[in-house]
Design a protein that fits this description.
Length: about 200
């Protein structure tokens, strides 16, 4: 879309020709496409296009210029983003900074002050990966905690401290229940079939 607004052309691979059609379909949904061709023709078409005389230069819209400056690493404060984006209660998966929702669209896009940019689909996939990773880390930590308190219960039993042993036994059971709950969530996230409630 930005390239089109600056006077460029949009060339997209024919989705029927693509192994994974998500990217060309997204491009077709996002902007008015000038050419949609099979992959075997893209090189020839580009070769023909570069031989044509370029059209008139169009002025670069200020919001696009600002996004290019951010992507190039310019220091941009949150005040500078206000004309083109609204702060969102979302964290940048790359740097941990605050994301802002770009006002121009579609597609729905987000950008942080450092320069990382995401479409909503890409951001959702990044978040999904982070959730899976966090669940696995939580599962490992809780299982280790259950193992530790079980050993502490055994140590208390051997030392004749029955009340302490029972307390740690109870905690071990509790931690194992938490671990089983997280394990079920992790396994559910790996199962591509939707649940009956969906």
């Amino acid at each position: 879309t930005a390239i089109k607004r600056c006077g460029g052309m949009a060339l997209v691979q024919d989705p029927k020709d693509a192994i994974a059609d998500e990217m060309p379909l997204s491009a077709l949904e996002s902007t008015t496409v000038d050419l949609c061709v099979p992959s075997r023709r893209i090189g020839d078409v580009l070769s023909e296009l570069v031989r044509e005389t370029a059209g008139a230069n169009l002025p670069i819209p200020p919001e696009i210029r600002l996004e290019v400056e951010i992507a190039a690493g310019e220091r941009i404060g949150s005040d500078n983003l206000v004309p083109v984006a609204n702060p969102a209660a979302l964290t940048c998966p790359s740097c941990g900074g605050v994301l802002s929702q770009i006002k121009a669209g579609p597609p729905l896009r987000f950008r942080c002050q450092v320069g990382h940019a995401y479409t909503a689909d890409t951001l959702a996939k990044e978040q999904e990966g982070r959730v899976d990773e966090a669940l696995r880390v939580a599962l490992r930590i809780i299982e280790e905690r259950a193992e530790l308190v079980q050993r502490m219960a055994e140590d208390g039993r051997q030392a004749g401290r029955r009340a302490v042993a029972e307390m740690y036994e109870s905690r071990a059971v509790e931690y194992r229940e938490y671990a089983d709950m997280i394990r079920r969530v992790v396994l559910q996230s790996l199962d591509p079939t939707p649940s009956a409630s969906q």
